[in-house]
Amino acid sequence: MPKVNTDSMPNDLNTLSLTEPTTDTIEVNVTDIPLSLYIHIPWCVKKCPYCDFNSHELPMDSELSMYEEYVDALLLDAAMQQPLTQGRKIGSIFIGGGTPSLLPIAQYQRLFTGLRSCFEFAEDIEVTMEANPGTLEYAPFSQYLEVGINRLSIGVQSFAADKLKVLGRIHDPVQALSAIRAAKAAGFVRVNVDLMHGLPQQTMNEALEDIQMAHDAGATHISWYQLTIEPNTVFYRSQPILPDEDNLADIEQAGQSLLQQLGYNNYEVSAWAGESDKPCRHNINYWQFGDYLAIGAGAHGKVTISRNDSIDNGSLELRNKMEDDLLVTPGIYRFSKSRLPKDYVVVSSDATKESDINQITPKMVGWQAIDQEELVSEFMLNALRLHGGVAWSMFEKRTGLALNSVIKQVNSLVAQGLLVDSDTQLQPTVLGQRYLNQILRAFFIKRHLDDCLIAARY
Ligand code: SF4
To answer: Does residue 415 belong to any structural domain of this protein?
Structure first.
């Protein structure tokens, strides 16, 4: 990172001017940008009182045909997004929800057969599926391996019966342990366990016991995150009693120490990879501002459209098709899908690959270019979550913006000890990791500040 004179830099972050993007842009080579795929399965047996995800209780009258229609819609959606790959292979897939383990295994077989004929998978593709310990009866884990799912993320949250009850989870401690053990016994080498802390009336010992039990049961990766109360949840309307700030800080510190002692490496705010495992490739791609396609109700994607001829090695026909279907010009875009499963399925069934933009618009409910100011804040929001940071060169390669668009903020943050002083690496210091929201404020445009700071908590 080129240096500027920092004598005149303000000491107080609040006095920093917000990002001032320049018109300096860099040519982006889309083939250098990794591509992932997110698949959303929107149903749950029961809505948890803390959950603000796009998840919907299974309809009382749900039938197998509901899953079949949904997979049809997913495959049609995938076919529509295929040109956005621009010749790239899919490096990782994440099946999230909702409760993906509710989808029958026969539908997973159909889904992956269809996806393989639509996309080219990288040979070493990482395919993660979220699993709920309360849905173990739906398919033996070995069958997930057979369709190509090679990493599980099990939503345990806690091993304490009273905590699971207050969280409204459908599983008990025995099922939680059984799920991890069954995954390992089936042959899953990589098993993440989601745990929450800061739960209602939780003591430090209880939080530490959850970590120890996940480790002892064989978790190769732990996502350890604090319960937060989100708008539009039952907990928001009727707040439980949570540990106070001092207790939360003590729990966090003790939990981090225990995770380290047990050999887990904290590579991101809440993510800990065990000695035998590695960081989740899919999430790393989000945090490194890579591209991701997204299929399913309410799914969000981000894709870079190249200025060069990398689309299928310069296939004019494909380029024209993509531009006709999605009305895109070179740039970095985000998009999202109809939120409700019934809307997603209906529109998908009506649409065809030959649809014009008006017909596919309801499915692609939000397709918009990310402007220069947002590119900076979104890149920083993601990259600075990684404790090891990212190479400075990635800023230009992923945003198409010149480094001088952020140099003022960076030098100020370095002077305040919040960013590492490095020509090659954009990285928060240990102090910066603690005050991540403070750092992010320096890069944010006002209109996105609140939204982004909320997102940054995770
Ligand atoms: S199981 Fe997960 S996605 Fe479903 S309601 Fe509970 S927290 Fe939300």
So the answer is: yes
